[in-house]
């Protein structure tokens, strides 16, 4: 199941990257820099200021982790064939000892590894998931949902500004969350069913 889900997410990431730029692999985009910036945003949502009262906004933390995952998958895809990459990722995740740590310190270690290697620190990322009690199933559901919505937006005029973000008085993200809950995320057709459900609701 894990191998299948990793391959599915790598395929979806390749598709969305290709939609934005046909030759994205040759462009050598600074994915690591995007991860670094997203990590700073993530820390703001978690809270780090000692001079004011702050409570972690764990929903936003998890959303930021999903955004980082997009960039991490893009880096992983530059390492070789998707099937080989998925197997390497599966082995690294399987070897991880699921012990919760200090989220802020683990985030700093993850960011440092990212900046020094300019690669994706998969083990460090998995540790952050453990720290905030985020399961791989949750990551998968959230990632596929966000990826499919991004593709749907691109297909319906996001670039030229004709895309409608409000549907029947609600944002597309709200419709997405509702649809995801109604579908079987373990099905191989999860992403295509999700896209079809968005299309059915879209007023354009």
From TrEMBL:
One of its GO terms (molecular function) is dUTP diphosphatase activity. The keyword Hydrolase applies. InterPro entries: dUTPase/dCTP_pyrophosphatase. Keywords: Hydrolase. It comes from the Bacteria. CDD domains: NTP-PPase_dUTPase. The keyword Hydrolase applies. Gene3D superfamilies: Type II deoxyuridine triphosphatase. Pfam families: dUTPase_2. Its EC number is 3.6.1.23. This is dUTP diphosphatase. It comes from Microbulbifer bruguierae. The lineage of its organism: Bacteria, Pseudomonadati, Pseudomonadota, Gammaproteobacteria, Cellvibrionales.
